[in-house]
Amino acid sequence: MTGRTGAGPGTTASPGQLGLWLFLSTEVMMFGALLLAITLARLGRSGAAPFDKGLGAANTAILLTSSLLVAVAVERSGPCSGPGRARLPLVGAAALGVAFLAVKAVEYRADFAKGLVPGPDLFVNLYYVATALHAVHLTIGVALLAGLALVRPQPSTVEAAGLYWHFVDLVWVFLYPALYLVPG
Q: In this structure, how many other beta carbons lie within 10 angstroms of the beta carbon of residue 176?
């Protein structure tokens, strides 16, 4: 983290920043292992992925838009900005996170109606594990962004929340093609 938080070249990161980076590192390892398992399970399948590419693409657009709003919130939370200028983009990003979860719920319902349920198919099982785990992380991010919108947080707090949110979005950018697009 560079810039306003003082962790640029020649400075020392705060314990909070170090903790956040360590946490995100462990998350990268966990989701990396999960993506490897999905890739290996995908190799054992033939044909197209059975999941709704349209809903997956819609959710990708939703999350990318939310990341833009979080970047705007980080910029507006700086010392040169007026109080509360980050509030609207934080609310917007949190609302888009809720929209993502709503689309995912619709997709799960359609998947269950098509018989795509956890069971003997490893790829389908990994789909549910990966998307549910991502949804948990997204729900935490939504709560974090919404909570920050209610207070006047320090710029470093908004920046840290933004880093977490961008990480969650980046995980989806890797999950979407692995689960929906890559042929078996």
A: 18
Q: Is residue 164 part of a domain?
A: yes
Separation between Cα atoms, residue 126 and residue 123, nearest integer Å: 5
Q: Give me the helices (H) in the chain, please.
A: 15-43, 53-76, 87-113, 122-150, 155-176
Q: How far apart are CA 133 and CA 164, in angstroms?
A: 15
The answer to whether the CB of 140 falls within 8 A of the CB of 97 is: no
- Asked if residue 15 is part of any domain, the answer here is no
Query: Which class for 26: exposed (0-12), middle (13-18), buried (19 or more C-beta within 10 A)?
Result: exposed
pTM score, whole prediction: 0.88
Q: Give me the number of domains the chain comprises.
A: 1
Assigned domain for 156 exists:
yes
| Residue 105 maps to a domain | yes
Domain span at 177: 64-184
Measured CA to CA in angstroms, residue 95 lies from 81, 177, 184 at distances of 23, 24, 35
What does the pLDDT look like over 12-57, one tens digit per residue? 666 678 899 999 999 999 999 999 999 999 888 887 789 999 999 9
